[in-house]
Structures are given as C-alpha cells and as structure tokens.
Amino acid sequence: MSTLHDDEVVSTPDLVRRLVAARYPAWAHLPVTRGPAGGTDHHLFRVGDELLARMPKTGWARDHAVADARWLPHLAAHLPVEVPVPEAVAGPGDGFPFHWSVVPWLEGAPPAPGDLTREGVRDLGEAVAALRAVPVAGGPVKEGTSRGVPLSRLDDDVRAAVVASGDRVDGAAVLAAWDRALAARPAPEGRWIHGDLLPGNLLARGGRLTGVIDWGAMGVGDPAADLIPAWGTGFTAAERADFRAAATAGLADPADAWDRGRGWMLVQAVIALPYYWDRWPEFARASQARVAAAVAA
Fold this sequence. Notes:
Layout lengths: L12 H11 L8 E3 L7 E6 L3 E6 L7 H13 L11 E3 L9 E5 L13 H15 L22 H11 L5 H13 L7 E3 L8 E4 L2 E5 L6 E3 L7 H4 L4 H11 L6 H23 L4 H16 L1
Antiparallel strand pairs: 1-2, 2-3, 3-5, 4-5, 6-9, 7-8
C-alpha cells in the first residue's frame, strides 16, 4: 500500500478488526472493509453497514478523535446538517500509536461541481452561519499557524509556497490577492469554525447538503476560514453569490471577511500544491484549480 506522508502509519482491515474486537466486543462480529478515501489525515474502514472506523495516518491527527468526542456533540446540537459524533474512542493498542474512533456511517457523497442545487448551495452557507453562532465558551482557540489564526502569521508560508509552486500558479496574481486579504480588517472576535470545508468533507443527497464530516481543523478562530467553499467547490458566479449571502449573514464585517476568506483559500491551496504535487496528483491539481478560482473571482 502506497503512503501519502513520510511518517504515515498504515492501517489495515485486519488491524481494525483486532482493535474493534478487543475494545468493543459487541461489534466483533461485524465485517471490516476498506472505506472511502480518507483524505490527508485518516484511513477509513467500514465496520458493518452502520459504522466507520477513523484511523489517523500521521502525528498531526493524533488528537482528532479525542477532540471530536469532546466537541462534536456540542456542535451537532446547533447545526442543520448531520455530523459524525463518535460512538466510541479508543487509545493506542496492538501496535497502533494513536487514539482512533468509531463514528456513525452517514449516507451521502461529496458533491462534484454542479451536484448541489441552488438550495444546496444555500444549505452550505446556512450551515456555516449556524456553526458561527454556536456559543464559544471554553472552545479550543486556534493557535500558531493553524487555520483561523490571524492571516499575517501565514505570510511567510504562503510566499514560500508561491515560490515553490513555480509556474504552476500565476505568482503575481496570487500575491496581489494575498496582499488584499492581509489588508482586510482582522476578525473582531473568534467563532467556531470547521476549518476545512472542501468538497471531500461535505455530504450531499439529491442536490442538498446533508452532512459535514472530518472536523480535525475545528476550533475557535477567524470565521472567514469557513468561506473557502466560495472558491473551492466549483461554484458558478450565481452560486457563489448565493453562498456569500447565506454564509456572511449577520457578520459585522462581511466585505473584510470575504477578502480574508479568499486568503484562507490561498493558504490551503497554495501550501498544499508543492507538497502534494507528486504525492497525491489529483489533490494537487484540485488545489491548483482552487488557487486560480480564488485569484479570478
């Protein structure tokens, strides 16, 4: 099995079967099979028909299961879409070094461009606004250079990634858009954010948004970080306008937040581009398209 990261921990159905049987005997009879592609952070495995095991791939995801168990019940109670609240969280064992979780299997599929109806686009914007309205008391404040901190902390990383990307991006246009994002007024206060609202972390059925998954980047920070679907989901101009209206409703600084949101799209896409160009070409090319969308629209 090829790996995505140099330090990746590889999980297999047999390992997950042993771990589930040892920790949760009531599920020991359920078949374990490989699930959908787990993105950059996790290997996913179906456990029977109604459960999904999430196995971190790398050290940066080591605390995701514990954070999910702590915060997703609180967030889910306020959101208009399904959220994979863990049913069980277990610590390291049988040679596996990280906490891992078992969550409910949520029906739906990540939307490709054009899959969401106009109502589905508004669903997404309304979910962003609903998350932003959840009380933040005690929530984990974003730190360092993680998504949701002041954009200025990412300045060196973005400029270095533009250089490393070479002619894969229009460097001058990217930096012009980035400078505009840096010039926007900072967020007046931190709000709950998902932090990674790319299509792979959305679930849709019949053109409507039904779920949001993979909450590893959640926390309290700049709410503009959750505006990235405007440039990351293949929206048309009309759909982008619908999303903007719903997602920025109630913000004290909608125009500045929109500029910062564009900056967050550049942070995510430009930094990913050189790292994943050879490791995960499909994701890198999608990042390249997101950079172009953020610069153009």
